[in-house]
Amino acid sequence: MALFILLLWNNGYYMLSRSGIKTGAGLHTTAYPVGVGNFINTNALHERLVNDFNTGSWLEWQLPQPVFIDGRLEVMQETFFAEYLNSQQPDSLTVLLQKYKPRMVVFDYMSSGSWHRQLAKLSDEWRMVFADETAVLYLHKNYREEFQPFNFRLYLAQRKLNNELTETQKRELLNIPVKSAVHRFYHA
User: Fold this and answer.
1) Cβ neighbours around 93 below 10 Å, total
2) Contacts for 116 with CB less than 8 Å, ≥ 6 apart
3) Helix intervals (H) in 26-127
4) Count of other CB atoms within 10 angstroms of residue 144
5) Beta pairing partners, 107
6) What is the radius of gyration, based on Cα positions, of the chain?
7) How much is the average pLDDT of 54-80?
8) If we measure between CA atoms, which residue out of 127, 135, 143, 132 comes closest to residue 43?
9) Residue 70 in contact with residue 60, Cβ under 8 Å?
């Protein structure tokens, strides 16, 4: 019980659950796309964007340009929301991108992970240029070409995180026996 109280007191519980709820003062920066909003504003990336449902309300507050979708379900039409939901299905994001012709795509990768897979297939047209704990930013190939694609190893190095495995660690990972569902159930 004492550990739970301590986690609530220092916001650790909310940070671990990525909840928008936070006690105390200030922003819970891992619940909102603060980093991507700052990146867009700092670099004056003020073109049309497509964003996911989870990032819209925050971006609407932080960015000067209009967002694609936000949390106000009562103001959008059902056909538009259905179109957005359909974009989460495999190979459906292209329809949305062709229709709205954005220069940027912003999303919370924990809730819209299918967009990552879809944009990876479109790597000749889109490049990821920013990522943090909460959201990612993709730019169209013809927009702001000075921004290089995101480098995950550099990201880890900047945060002083080890990004290399030793030969022993690689072997240990590769030699882990795969256990069947029956084995896991029997030994649970």
Assistant:
1) 24
2) 109, 136
3) 34-42, 53-62, 78-86, 93-100, 113-121
4) 14
5) 136
6) 20
7) 90
8) 143
9) yes
Is residue 93 within 8 A of residue 72, CB to CB? The reply is no
Give residue for tokens 């964007």: 49
**Structure confidence at residue 3 (pLDDT):** 78
H or E, element range at 91: none
Query: How does pLDDT run across 32-49, given as a tens digit for each residue?
Result: 899 999 999 999 999 999
What's the rounded mean pLDDT across residues 88-99?
Answer: 95
Report the pLDDT averaged over residues 71-95.
91
Cα separations in angstroms, 155 against 33, 42, 130, 133: 17, 18, 10, 11
pLDDT at 150: 93
Residues 102/140, Cβ–Cβ less than 8 Å: yes
